[in-house]
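Design a sequence for this backbone.
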């Protein structure tokens, strides 16, 4: 799938460039495309320098949390909920702790670090699978929740915004929180309907109702604030939450007599290994997106969508953020490249770039997650996993656009 998508970018760019040359006489487009290749390769290395530090740092802190027992405590706290939503997984099974750690990595926005943990969780769930070629209900729920990617601290997106010169990288904290909550809720409801999960069970309601009430009250409060106040609150909460989490990990680790420095270095070493493998993918996708934009193909597609949106009387400013949304189901690296490219061409704090960043943080890469997680354990029959995951992705994109109009419109 990624082969087709990547090759398609170059073929479409080539056709568009030929059309510009033969029909409009713009022969200089080929020189601009070659220049774009080298510029994007350089940009990839610049982005990776900061990504190395970000992943290394957060996986270090996450290892402290793991050794301090925070992850195990979360697993025990969530055990009654998992027992109702995943009745096929026994209490105390290793898959529960691994899923909790995966959700924690996703919540911190460490999507690349979450993947190896998620693969371990999927393998643990596969040990309980009576039909190895067919996804179980528990595996489908785990995959859909993973694909909806509840992100509480999108540090990777903060990092990309920082690298592109944003004066306040955490400005999108609240929009992403609201959009990702919508996608996760949509994914959970979709799976619950298909699997007939007991969402009205008192234990399940005891977990979900307080979260829903807090979010509803929070959204009601946000609705009373001006756009400037919303942006200021998002910045304050983003930075406060980020630093508070670091301090909490360190204090709990020290209280549990964890050698916090050694634990941090151990986790950071793993982060370095994860990060260094990303550069080839980032170069590949950024170069492909660069030539697609320079050839004019991406602009033509967006102009067509913009015309359709304006024809029905809607505001079309969100259209420039759609490239990230359109490729997100297929490739995280392509969506990341689209986001960076949008920030470069539109401005890091433009409405389009802020919306693209919110879309990037609201969902995961459905088909990539499906291929990697199910492929790793040899599952060929995904059952209702794709439909539920795509519904969650659509809900996240729509919510991201709506929230950004509320915050930045």
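Sequence:
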């Amino acid at each position: 799938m990624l082969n087709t998508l990547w090759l398609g970018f170059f073929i479409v760019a080539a056709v568009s460039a030929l059309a510009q040359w033969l029909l409009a006489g713009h022969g200089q487009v080929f020189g601009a495309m070659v220049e774009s290749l080298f510029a994007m390769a350089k940009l990839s290395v610049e982005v990776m320098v900061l990504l190395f530090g970000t992943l290394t740092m957060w996986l270090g802190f996450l290892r402290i949390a793991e050794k301090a027992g925070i992850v195990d405590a979360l697993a025990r706290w969530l055990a009654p909920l998992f027992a109702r939503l995943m009745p096929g997984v026994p209490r105390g099974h290793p898959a529960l702790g691994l899923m909790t750690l995966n959700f924690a990595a996703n919540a911190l926005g460490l999507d690349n670090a979450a993947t190896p943990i998620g693969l371990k969780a999927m393998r643990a769930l596969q040990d309980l699978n009576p039909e190895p070629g067919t996804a179980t209900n528990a595996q489908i729920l785990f995959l859909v929740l993973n694909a909806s990617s509840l992100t509480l601290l999108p540090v990777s997106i903060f990092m990309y915004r920082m690298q592109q010169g944003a004066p306040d990288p955490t400005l999108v904290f609240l929009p992403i929180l609201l959009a990702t909550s919508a996608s996760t809720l949509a994914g959970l409801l979709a799976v619950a309907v298909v699997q007939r999960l007991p969402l009205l069970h008192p234990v399940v309601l005891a977990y979900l109702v307080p979260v829903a009430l807090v979010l509803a009250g929070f959204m009601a409060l946000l609705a009373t604030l001006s756009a400037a106040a919303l942006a200021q609150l998002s910045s304050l909460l983003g930075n406060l939450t980020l630093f508070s989490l670091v301090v909490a990990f360190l204090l709990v680790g020290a209280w549990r007599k964890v050698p916090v420095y050694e634990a941090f270095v151990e986790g950071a070493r793993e982060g370095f290994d994860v990060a260094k493998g990303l550069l080839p993918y980032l170069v590949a996708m950024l170069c492909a997106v660069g030539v697609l934009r320079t050839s004019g193909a991406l602009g033509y597609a967006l102009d067509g969508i913009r015309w359709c949106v304006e024809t029905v009387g809607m505001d079309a400013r969100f259209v420039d953020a759609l490239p990230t949304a359109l490729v997100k189901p297929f490739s995280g690296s392509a969506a990341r490249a689209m986001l960076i490219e949008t920030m470069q061409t539109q401005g890091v704090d433009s409405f389009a770039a802020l919306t693209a960043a919110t879309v990037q943080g609201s969902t995961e890469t459905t088909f990539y997650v499906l291929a990697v997680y199910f492929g790793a354990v040899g599952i060929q029959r995904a059952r209702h996993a794709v439909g539920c995951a795509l519904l969650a992705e659509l809900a996240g994109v729509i919510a991201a656009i709506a929230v950004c109009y509320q915050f930045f419109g």
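The chain has one domain: 46-408.
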